[in-house]
Each structure stands twice: as C-alpha cells, then as structure tokens.
Design brief:
single chain, 147 residues, mainly beta, six-stranded antiparallel sheet, 6 strands, 73% strand
Length: 147
Amino acid sequence: SFSAGLFFYQDLVKSASGFIPEEVSDSVWSEFDLTGFNAFSIGLSAGYQYTFVIKGNFFINLQATPGLGYRRLSGSRQSGAIEAVNQLAGHALFRLAIGYEFKHFYLGATGSTILRSFKYRDYEVDLGTEQFRLMIGKRFDVNRKKP
C-alpha cells in the first residue's frame, strides 16, 4: 500500500561542555563548538508498505517512508548563541513488523527507526529515533449474537 502523511519533530539537545570531548584534536573541537540546538521540522512524507502473509497466520510487514519539509534550526556554541536558520528538512522512516495470529490471541513485534540530519558548518549532524514494541492481544467476537 502507498502511504502519505505529515511529519514533525522537535529535537532539543544541550551539553554544557559541547559534544566533542576535549581529548579530540583542537582543530575539530574549536570548529565544532556546538553546545546545544533546537531543531523544529515539519513536512510531508510518502512511501510504501507491504505485508507478506505466510501460511495464513504468520505475517511480516515492511515500510519505507521518506519525507521532505522545513526546518528551523537555532542553537548555542561555546562563544554564545548562533543565529537561527531556515533549512530544508528531510527524514526517512523504516519499519519492520512481524506477527502470528492464533484463534483467540495474536503476538507481534515492531521495530522502527526515523533518520534525519542537519549541517552545522562543515559537519553533518545525524539524528535517529528508534522504537521497539512487543504486543500480545486477545480477540473478542463482537458480532456474535446472544441467544
């Protein structure tokens, strides 16, 4: 199935001493002096997902959904605040789900990751959100008529 939707994120990260350890080369530490950032992103996404059904009860679902939109990035560095900038925002969502259906119960697991990044000076800052869920459910027959 094709899918489409909206995405939005707010990534707020702070570190009093910065993200690069002082033991790393002075040139990298002085160039990448970011100590915090606030990145708000919003956009549209469209992708595809497919479910493989094996022997009627076992299924595997795969999904890939890229997106494109707008990002407002502001932050702070060792020497003070950086000016807020507007950027193009991209993201990619990948999801895998597996499950098995019994007569009255079902079991399942899903794992997903959302990847996004932004550029600060000559460096690419990669962000990711991962999620894993285990599920067990009971089926109820709501259409059965009572005598």
